[in-house]
Amino acid sequence: MAGKKTLVTGAGGFIGGHLVEYLRNKGINDIVAVDIKPFEEWYQVWDYADNKVLDLRKWDACVESVKGCDTVYNLAADMGGMGFIENNKALCMISVLINTHMVMAAKEERAHRFFYASSACVYNGEKQQDVDNPGLKEEDAYPALAEDGYGWEKLFSERMCRHFMEDFGIVTRVARFHNVYGPHGTFDGGREKAPAAICRKVINSKLTGDHNIEIWGDGHQTRSFMYIDDCTYGIDRIMSSHIDYPINLGSAEMVSINQLVDMVEDIAGIKLDRHYNLNAPKGVRGRSSDNTLIEKELGWEPSISLREGMEKTYAWIYDQITSNVKSKV
Ligand code: NAD
Questions:
Q1: Percent of the chain surpassing pLDDT 70
Q2: What is the CATH number of the domain that holds 116?
């Protein structure tokens, strides 16, 4: 018999940590939270959850995690921003073991619903060569030409979820996240993404008085960024919906990296000299989310403005950096 507990994997990570809090605030009490990292490296540890450190590439760990769980949110993956995924393709692909073993264990333990965190990196690269990207539609994943390594793993795992639903009846739901940002995430060390990296660089300039900033690429490349609160709410809506195909979960507010830097400079009250590193990992030229389908299905789309989200993110990273500086004095 299936149990009644809810499992969040990758709970020591950015989105997983916020999702545990979101679910608890919604009244879900019996939560199992799993991550491979030791507890002191989790971004958030919630005492009310049953927290476990396990390597979910391993079959036994997946079975142990999912025991007694009716609902599974699988967010565990070895991932990071462009700097990480362009240089660690094998590691990214090995995450296929996590989703494969997780969905098999969920089926064996008779969980009813399974969520998989996919990514905009599944989309065909040829449809992202223009900075004026009109927004990627779900159908743009095929013909397949995903981001090498990370994107192919996500595309394969999406299909695995689909076939488990078709062949074994476990309800699987898949969202393609587009760049998620917010407090309690990575902002240094090599796995950080553009919003956090730019906040960190601007804050360091402010604190050190060195008014130079390095920008990866020519700054004209475009992206959209979704604030974490829209992400957790969207996961919940998609998980409890009838949407049985991979769907975009992202913001349609597209900006260039230069515009993002303008915004962070404005928040910080500083102007910096920009130096463009054209040899750094840049990713695709233009990417945004077409939200026609999610709007049609749910009557909702992510709508927290980039400015509002970046102010909160900047404030959190500023606190982290300044409290680290203070604690080292
Ligand atoms: P994150 O790196 O902060 O969280 C992922 C967590 O998974 C980490 O804490 C990591 O330790 C854990 N993990 C890795 N290998 C594991 C293993 N073998 N066993 C158990 N845990 C393991 O990343 P995130 O931003 O919170 O992303 C969560 C999910 O969303 C991932 O699947 C990611 O691919 C997907 N996603 C994120 C974004 C984004 O912008 N953040 C965009 C698209 C997709």
A1: 98
A2: 3.40.50.720
Q: Is the CB of 190 within 6 Å of ligand 1?
A: no
Give the mean model confidence (pLDDT) for residues 169-180: 97
**Mean per-residue pLDDT for 263-267?**
98
Query: 109 in a domain, yes or no?
Result: yes
Ligand 1, atom 41: closest residue by C-alpha: 180
Give a yes or no: residue 47 inside a domain: yes
pLDDT band at 81 (very low <50, low <70, confident <90, very high): confident
The whole domain housing 47 covers 6-181+225-249
SS3 for the chain is CCCCEEEEECCCCHHHHHHHHHHHHCCCCCEEEEECCCHHHCCCCCCCCEEEECCCCCHHHHHHHHCCEEEEEECCCCCCCHHHHCCCHHHHHHHHHHHHHHHHHHHHCCCCEEEEEEEHHHCCHHHHCCCCCCCECHHHHCCCCCCCCHHHHHHHHHHHHHHHHHHHCCEEEEEEECCEECCCCCCCCCCCCHHHHHHHHHHHHHHHCCCEEEEECCCCCEEECEEHHHHHHHHHHHHCCCCCCCEEECCCCEEEHHHHHHHHHHHHCCCCEEEEECCCCCCCCECCECCHHHHHHHCCCCCCCHHHHHHHHHHHHHHHHHHHHHHHC
pLDDT tens column, 206-241: 999 999 999 999 999 999 999 999 999 999 999 999
Quick check: is 76 in a domain? yes
Residue 169 lies in a domain: yes
Q: Does 119 contact ligand 1 (Cβ within 6 A)?
A: yes
Query: What does pTM read for this prediction?
Result: 0.97
- 57 CB under 6 A from ligand 1? yes
Total domain count for the chain? 1
Q: For a pocket test of ligand 1, which of 7, 8, 15, 57 has the largest count of ligand atoms closer than 8 A to its C-beta?
A: 15
